[in-house]
Write a structure and sequence with these properties.
Layout (H helix, E strand, L loop, with lengths): L7 E7 L7 H11 L4 E7 L5 H11 L3 E4 L13 E2 L1 H6 L4 E4 L5 E4 L2 H12 L10 E4 L3 H12 L5 E4 L3 H11 L3 E4 L13 E4 L23 E4 L8 H8 L3 E3 L2 H16 L7 H12 L2
Parallel strand pairs: 1-2, 1-3, 4-6, 7-8, 7-10, 8-9, 10-11, 11-12
Antiparallel strand pairs: 3-5, 5-6
Bound molecules: NADP nicotinamide-adenine-dinucleotide phosphate.
Length: 283
């Protein structure tokens, strides 16, 4: 439970970090819950990550989130890495424990799954094959979450096949790796297709993926949230698919972080989504 006699502190470490929308979200929750606290962007160069993480406890931080490029490096710095972060291979959330030691976990997979459930009530991972495009850090969290939720068939496609094969080997679940040239065919009969590549992100080329094989009832999701609608999602929407963008993944990974830092689980409200959308659209 949050201690009402203390100023509650958390933040996000990244390099760069000023683009992050996390402070807007967490500070909304402090205000909504009437708590004295702040969530701050912490611009930390990779060489300074260990010192910055070690400073969390003496500065009175409950913990922090990590973003690019720190998620992997932090694994070698914190005192304990939980099984989830170990399997995903990255830490998204650091918790300062009572004795000042640092515990690292990963909530990105929860963000992805909880968002799908909120956006598409009744969604099930075992509703049919899932095509996951991309095999970077985001993909690892998405694949982990889908397997946790009981996905029976994941078709993993990546430009560099070896990266997809590494995920399939490590996760040892029902993941089949298809070559990049077969990405369009991977959508045949799929219930869900997820873009986890950086293609379609602001400043990046669009994802080169034909949707003609995607069944009409299939859900299309992207983990990118800048822009809110990537060319991939726009094409899926135009074909009549229900689409889910990456903003909700960011919003929903914040809740388990609050649970760990402050013992509270704030709501992902329509008002919060709107504020975040306005901020992203206005950039
Ligand atoms: N919503 C959220 O909370 C959330 C969380 C995590 C990430 N994200 C977003 O997800 C995106 C990916 O992040 P990440 O951390 O997974 O990045 P990452 O680890 O660098 O992985 C990038 C992925 O994109 C692929 N890729 C890059 N350029 C490509 C191209 N031109 N053609 C085809 N594939 C290409 C890479 O393929 P190779 O393996 O061949 O290089 C790799 O699979 C970013 O936009 C990030 O902001 C969002």
């Amino acid at each position: 439970m949050a201690d009402s006699t203390r100023f509650l502190l958390a933040g996000v470490m990244g390099w760069p970090v000023m683009h992050s929308r996390s402070p807007l979200m967490h500070n909304y929750w402090f205000g909504k819950l009437g708590l004295a606290g702040a969530y701050v962007p912490l611009a930390i160069e990779p060489a300074g990550l260990a010192a910055a993480l070690r400073a969390l406890a003496p500065l009175g931080f409950a913990g922090c989130n990590l973003t690019i490029p720190h998620k992997q490096q932090a694994m070698t710095i914190v005192d304990e890495v939980d099984e989830v972060a170990e399997r995903i291979g990255a830490i998204s959330c650091v918790v300062v424990r009572r004795d000042g030691s640092l515990y690292g976990t990963n909530n990105d997979w929860r963000g992805f799954i909880d968002n799908l459930k909120q956006e598409q009530p009744g969604w099930r991972a075992d509703a049919g094959p899932v095509a996951v495009i991309g095999a970077g850090g985001g993909s690892r969290a998405v694949c982990y979450g889908l397997l946790q939720e009981g996905a029976e068939e994941i078709r993993l496609v990546n430009r560099t096949t070896a990266h997809a094969e590494a995920i399939a080997d490590e996760f040892a679940g029902p993941i089949s790796v298809l070559p990049w040239v077969s990405r369009h065919e991977a959508l045949e009969g799929a219930a869900l297709v997820v873009n986890t590549t950086s293609c379609g992100m602001v400043g990046q080329p669009a994802l080169d993926l034909r949707l003609d094989r995607l069944p009409q009832r299939a859900l299309a999701a992207d983990i990118i949230y800048i822009p809110l609608e990537t060319p991939f999602l726009a094409a899926a929407r135009e074909r009549g698919h229900h689409t889910v963008n990456g903003l909700g993944m960011l919003l929903h990974q914040g809740r388990p972080a609050w649970k760990l830092w402050f013992g509270l689980e704030p709501e992902v409200t329509a008002e919060l989504r709107e504020r975040m959308e306005r901020s992203i659209a206005g950039q």
